[in-house]
Amino acid sequence: MLRELGLKGREHDxxxxxxxxxxxxxxxxxxxxxxxxxxxxxxxxxxxxxxxYEQFDALQDLSFSVKHGETFGVIGPNGCGKSTLLKVxxxxxxxxxxxxxxxxxxAPFLELGVGFQPELSAKDNVYLYGAIxxxxxxxxxxxxxxxxxxxxxxxxxSMKLRNFSSGMYVRLAFATAIQTDPDIMxxxxxxxxxxxxxxxxxxxxxxxxxxxxxxxxxxxxxxxTVGALCSRCLxxxxxxxxxxxxxxxxxxxxxxxxxxxxxxxxxxxxx
Length: 271
Prior knowledge:
Number of helices: 8
Radius of gyration: 21 Å
Largest sheet: 6 strands, mixed
Strand content: 25-35%
């Protein structure tokens, strides 16, 4: 059931909006069984069930818009479709139905470090990852020292990435990605990676970008962060929009739903 918390329906245009999601659906097929050998595959064909799938509706007819300069939160339980939505907006995945319209340069902070090469040095990876994120070599030249300063990895710039810890890896990826100077940032749980000090540093940087008037679409399980940064929020459940509107109101709705689910589970356990 869709709760009307500021939802305007499906009449959206790009006038004043950075992101428009219009009637978007995405379905995945989950195989029921995995064929390992040629014999098993042929046996499956004889039985008539070699390729059977379960349909999983990750996103179901989503429509909303995000205004220029707005920090917009996306929340919901695990498996509700938050990350799939962000990947569709980023263009990593394509919707089966509907369309996404964007106005501005987009930087997706989805899986930091995808494209890194472990046999190359940290410096070489900055240039490689920067190119993947849309920076020219001259732009990376100008920003290289700032990248290394933010990541606090200058002394390790000649070390191969395979010798980096996971925390160092993430610091280098985030420090490079934020140099793309995007109009729209798509952020998926970036604030939950790395050590506590770096999480704080990332949060401060994102807040700085937010105050500069950039558009941010943030997926997070950290309700405190969502409450502090986001002006509006979208609550998802099973691929659908359950609530959309002011952050305080949507967070309260999420708490209500969570408590209701927990209460039902506790009742069943007692029976």
